[in-house]
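Dock 2-acetamido-2-deoxy-beta-D-glucopyranose; give full complex structure.
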Amino acid sequence: MAFLWITVLFWAYVSRCCGQPLSPENTWAVLVAGSSGYGNYRHQADICHAYQIMKKHGISEDHLIVMATDDIAHNSLNPFPGQVFNRPGNQNATDVYAGCKIDYKGHEVTPDTFTKVLTGVQDGTTNGKKVLKSDSTSRVFVNFVDHGGVGIIGFPSTTMHVADLTKTLDTMQQKKTYGELLFYLEACESGSMFPNLSSTSKIYAVTAANGKESSWGYYCMPQDVVKGKHIGSCLGDLFSISWMEDADLNQPMETIAQQVEKVTKRTNKSHVTTFGDTSFTNEPIAHFDELKMIDHSGVVSEIEPLPEDGIISAQDIPLAMAQYKYLMASPGLEKDFAKWHLETVKENRKEDHGLFHAITDKACEKSDQNFNCTSKLQTIQMDLKDLLCHKALASIIEKECLPHNHGDDYQVGGWNAFSWKFSQWLVNICESQDSLNADVDAFKRIVSGACTDANAAKMAKARAETVQFI
Ligand SMILES: *[C@@H]1O[C@H](CO)[C@@H](O)[C@H](O)[C@H]1NC(C)=O
Ligand SMILES: *[C@@H]1O[C@H](CO)[C@@H](O)[C@H](O)[C@H]1NC(C)=O
Ligand SMILES: *[C@@H]1O[C@H](CO)[C@@H](O)[C@H](O)[C@H]1NC(C)=O
Ligand SMILES: *[C@@H]1O[C@H](CO)[C@@H](O)[C@H](O)[C@H]1NC(C)=O
């Protein structure tokens, strides 16, 4: 009861002081896992766990919008068909897939759909499915989980550039589709995605990492054990697990700022970073997930901290998984296959490295003598300003470079879990035009040429391997 009264007093206060009151019944959530493939089990596990929290705390189903490829629960690699877990456990482990209603699946999980869901556009893309119907009295919670690089976040078959995410948030602001918007983003270099969010935007964004570092998988091998079986993939991500296991504790009076402080402490492999408008961070987080003061005595957390192993940089998870499978494989065919797979992953990393080395080498050909060019382009971390240049180069990597054949990881053209980190090198090129004595068109030709060369080498290698097998 106390909580309800405080809520009522709070609304009375808000409506007196700041104009239009927000309506507690008008809370919405958009939850997105941007990846596909069993190697990214953790992203969809995170998002279904978020769904369970929103649902349990009282957001109605028609205000909850979920996007996820949905290729995990029924994946042939899943030892528990039809179930997904976001935390190791015994017989009592919670299946977060049970009741997790996914609105947009498979090929529907695109930046275009995401944008239309957020801006409330009903058309052929959203196809009669749920989109935000929120207004200026609404609270909107957005949670996105996937891979990313400087200025980009991943979707199963394409990427979304920071220029487009910024435009989408601007449109939401113009259309007044929220009173307050809380955005939790988990991805590598996620701190590069909200560069100009204003302190009066009524948008508060919290990212798993700053703009220059990896985010981290959690409950990875060998901590990936549920009911005595290894899941064979990380179960969650460190930042996502940190906020959700905090939310699972059902603390109705905890404020957004308090949650962010706890999450920042627990996410100690990267720097949780915040952007935008802090004017509402002293509100209870419960206003965003609608946690009601109902009897939670039966569900108050059974969570105990697990050992801190099983934390892996998101960029290295495919390699770590391959190494782990090799270690665990029984001698004979299984070991041979695991060894081949591990060698392939290492080889692919080398190829990715080679591709971006070729690009920086070429970009440096006309550079100023004293610029120390390749070393600079490969090590410094410049801020992304020239959006058009970076978007153009990133899109050539996506559209013109062939993906590797990586088994259980997903690829967006030349981008993959490992290579996304080289997005920073493209930023450095775009921001160094003067010292490189070249322009964007020249850079485009360089990147395009490097893709052509890498593709030709890949095809030649594939042919040679085929001949070997015959
Ligand atoms: C599962 O939960 C029940 C009820 O809380 C408890 O009695 C039981 O010991 C738990 N089982 C395991 C294996 O922890
Ligand atoms: C991160 O936190 C864990 C416990 O939450 C602790 O064991 C570990 O030493 C911390 N790591 C660093 C780098 O501070
Ligand atoms: C070039 O950069 C590298 C690495 O940053 C540094 O070790 C080296 O001393 C630099 N060389 C010159 C000539 O500045
Ligand atoms: C942010 O502002 C800077 C400075 O005005 C600009 O160069 C940059 O392109 C902007 N970024 C986005 C994503 O709008």
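Observed: The mean pLDDT is 89.
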